[in-house]
Amino acid sequence: MKTTLLLVGKTTDKHIQACLDDYMGRLKHYLPFEVVVIPELKQTKSLSEGQQKEMEGQMILKKIQPTDYLVLLDEHGKEMSSKDFSKWLESRQMTGQNLTFVIGGPYGFSDSVYDRCNYKVSLSKMTFSHQMVRMIFAEQLYRACTIVRGEPYHHE
After folding, report:
1. Which of 77, 78, 101, 153 has the largest count of CB atoms under 10 Å?
2. What pLDDT, in 10s, does the model give residues 46-84?
3. Residue 24 near residue 33 (C-beta atoms within 8 A)
Protein backbone atom coordinates (compact mmCIF):
# COMPACT_ATOMS: atom_id res chain seq x y z
CA MET A 1 0.00 0.00 0.00
CA LYS A 2 1.34 3.39 -0.99
CA THR A 3 0.27 6.57 0.77
CA THR A 4 0.29 9.84 -1.14
CA LEU A 5 -0.30 13.41 -0.05
CA LEU A 6 -1.51 15.41 -3.04
CA LEU A 7 -1.13 19.19 -2.74
CA VAL A 8 -2.35 22.08 -4.87
CA GLY A 9 0.55 24.53 -5.07
CA LYS A 10 4.04 24.25 -3.69
CA THR A 11 4.90 24.94 -0.07
CA THR A 12 6.22 28.49 -0.02
CA ASP A 13 7.14 28.92 3.64
CA LYS A 14 10.65 27.55 4.16
CA HIS A 15 10.00 26.75 7.85
CA ILE A 16 6.88 24.75 7.02
CA GLN A 17 8.74 23.00 4.18
CA ALA A 18 11.56 22.05 6.57
CA CYS A 19 9.04 20.59 9.02
CA LEU A 20 7.21 18.79 6.21
CA ASP A 21 10.52 17.34 4.97
CA ASP A 22 11.29 16.13 8.49
CA TYR A 23 7.98 14.26 8.82
CA MET A 24 8.26 12.89 5.28
CA GLY A 25 11.62 11.39 6.24
CA ARG A 26 10.18 9.91 9.42
CA LEU A 27 7.15 8.48 7.62
CA LYS A 28 9.28 6.49 5.20
CA HIS A 29 10.20 4.19 8.11
CA TYR A 30 6.52 3.22 8.44
CA LEU A 31 5.00 3.23 4.98
CA PRO A 32 5.72 4.06 1.36
CA PHE A 33 4.94 7.78 1.33
CA GLU A 34 5.23 10.50 -1.26
CA VAL A 35 4.09 14.07 -1.73
CA VAL A 36 2.81 15.08 -5.15
CA VAL A 37 2.42 18.77 -5.95
CA ILE A 38 -0.04 20.03 -8.53
CA PRO A 39 1.05 23.44 -9.84
CA GLU A 40 -1.02 26.43 -8.77
CA LEU A 41 -3.18 27.98 -11.44
CA LYS A 42 -1.70 31.05 -13.08
CA GLN A 43 -3.54 34.31 -13.82
CA THR A 44 -6.63 33.52 -11.78
CA LYS A 45 -7.96 37.09 -11.51
CA SER A 46 -10.23 36.51 -14.51
CA LEU A 47 -11.55 33.21 -13.10
CA SER A 48 -14.42 32.76 -10.67
CA GLU A 49 -13.99 30.63 -7.55
CA GLY A 50 -16.03 27.91 -9.26
CA GLN A 51 -13.84 27.97 -12.36
CA GLN A 52 -10.71 27.73 -10.23
CA LYS A 53 -12.11 24.79 -8.27
CA GLU A 54 -13.12 23.05 -11.49
CA MET A 55 -9.69 23.51 -13.10
CA GLU A 56 -7.89 22.36 -9.95
CA GLY A 57 -10.33 19.45 -9.69
CA GLN A 58 -9.45 18.27 -13.20
CA MET A 59 -5.74 18.33 -12.28
CA ILE A 60 -6.39 16.47 -9.02
CA LEU A 61 -8.43 13.74 -10.73
CA LYS A 62 -5.68 13.20 -13.32
CA LYS A 63 -3.26 12.29 -10.52
CA ILE A 64 -5.55 9.70 -8.92
CA GLN A 65 -5.75 6.08 -10.00
CA PRO A 66 -9.21 4.48 -10.26
CA THR A 67 -8.29 2.03 -7.49
CA ASP A 68 -6.98 4.68 -5.04
CA TYR A 69 -8.89 5.28 -1.84
CA LEU A 70 -9.32 9.06 -1.98
CA VAL A 71 -9.46 11.06 1.26
CA LEU A 72 -10.08 14.80 1.18
CA LEU A 73 -8.81 16.98 3.98
CA ASP A 74 -11.96 19.04 4.23
CA GLU A 75 -13.58 21.24 6.85
CA HIS A 76 -16.80 19.20 6.55
CA GLY A 77 -15.03 15.88 7.03
CA LYS A 78 -15.02 13.60 10.04
CA GLU A 79 -13.17 14.87 13.06
CA MET A 80 -11.36 12.28 15.11
CA SER A 81 -8.76 12.04 17.81
CA SER A 82 -5.22 11.03 16.95
CA LYS A 83 -5.89 7.60 18.41
CA ASP A 84 -9.08 7.19 16.37
CA PHE A 85 -7.24 8.31 13.25
CA SER A 86 -4.55 5.69 13.90
CA LYS A 87 -7.24 2.98 14.16
CA TRP A 88 -8.83 4.23 10.93
CA LEU A 89 -5.43 4.27 9.20
CA GLU A 90 -4.60 0.77 10.38
CA SER A 91 -7.92 -0.55 9.06
CA ARG A 92 -7.29 1.15 5.69
CA GLN A 93 -3.80 -0.36 5.55
CA MET A 94 -5.28 -3.84 6.00
CA THR A 95 -7.05 -3.46 2.64
CA GLY A 96 -3.77 -3.03 0.76
CA GLN A 97 -5.40 -0.28 -1.29
CA ASN A 98 -3.34 2.82 -2.13
CA LEU A 99 -4.36 5.75 0.01
CA THR A 100 -4.35 9.29 -1.40
CA PHE A 101 -4.95 12.32 0.83
CA VAL A 102 -5.64 15.65 -0.88
CA ILE A 103 -5.24 19.22 0.34
CA GLY A 104 -7.07 21.39 -2.17
CA GLY A 105 -6.65 24.95 -3.29
CA PRO A 106 -7.83 28.10 -1.53
CA TYR A 107 -11.51 27.60 -2.43
CA GLY A 108 -11.77 23.91 -1.68
CA PHE A 109 -12.77 21.13 -4.04
CA SER A 110 -14.90 20.89 -7.16
CA ASP A 111 -18.06 18.79 -7.20
CA SER A 112 -16.28 16.23 -9.40
CA VAL A 113 -13.60 15.72 -6.72
CA TYR A 114 -16.26 15.41 -3.99
CA ASP A 115 -18.07 12.87 -6.17
CA ARG A 116 -14.87 10.80 -6.53
CA CYS A 117 -13.78 10.91 -2.90
CA ASN A 118 -14.20 7.92 -0.62
CA TYR A 119 -13.84 9.75 2.70
CA LYS A 120 -13.37 13.22 4.17
CA VAL A 121 -11.30 14.10 7.23
CA SER A 122 -11.30 17.38 9.13
CA LEU A 123 -8.21 18.23 11.14
CA SER A 124 -10.07 20.75 13.28
CA LYS A 125 -13.07 23.05 13.44
CA MET A 126 -10.53 25.85 13.32
CA THR A 127 -9.28 27.16 9.99
CA PHE A 128 -5.59 26.82 9.14
CA SER A 129 -3.69 28.13 6.15
CA HIS A 130 -3.21 25.56 3.39
CA GLN A 131 0.51 25.78 4.09
CA MET A 132 0.06 24.88 7.77
CA VAL A 133 -2.38 22.06 7.03
CA ARG A 134 0.42 20.26 5.18
CA MET A 135 2.64 20.24 8.24
CA ILE A 136 -0.18 19.42 10.68
CA PHE A 137 -1.38 16.53 8.56
CA ALA A 138 2.13 15.10 8.08
CA GLU A 139 2.64 15.19 11.86
CA GLN A 140 -0.72 13.49 12.50
CA LEU A 141 0.04 10.80 9.94
CA TYR A 142 3.39 10.18 11.60
CA ARG A 143 1.72 10.15 15.03
CA ALA A 144 -0.83 7.62 13.78
CA CYS A 145 1.95 5.36 12.52
CA THR A 146 3.70 5.45 15.90
CA ILE A 147 0.43 4.69 17.71
CA VAL A 148 -0.20 1.69 15.44
CA ARG A 149 3.27 0.35 16.29
CA GLY A 150 2.90 1.09 20.01
CA GLU A 151 5.86 3.48 20.01
CA PRO A 152 6.24 6.17 22.70
CA TYR A 153 5.79 9.30 20.52
CA HIS A 154 2.12 9.75 21.48
CA HIS A 155 1.21 10.33 25.13
CA GLU A 156 -2.25 9.87 26.59
Report:
1. 101
2. 888 999 999 999 999 999 999 999 999 999 999 999 999
3. yes
